[in-house]
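Annotated sample (chain length 111).
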Amino acid sequence: TPEATAVDLVRSAKSAVGLDNVATVLAELVPLLEPGRLLKAARAIGGVPNAQRLGYLIERVAKRSLAKPLHDWFRRQSTSVVPLRPGKSATEGVEERRWHVLVTDLIEVET
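Output written by the structure step:
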């Protein structure tokens, strides 16, 4: 499904040549994504840290409403701050408080 693809992209950001490319593909998937199915896919295969990253990225490329069910679920989980870019230090960057991700640099989406 497009939703499972979105989760997989975030999970494999390193092999997808980085989050900039992931964000670009997510922007192309937005018209196909359904909020409830996005939540279901994230819960089934993504895990909380990847849900945090996915929610942050979705909100950068689409309307906040697309990520609302994901955010509502995420808020009820036991979470910690995670780096937006996997492999980065969990102490570097500025915390984006809505999703509790550390942002070290801007995400560039190709159009």
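Annotation: Helices lie at 2-11, 19-29, 35-61, 64-75.
Annotation: The first helix runs from residue 2 to 11.
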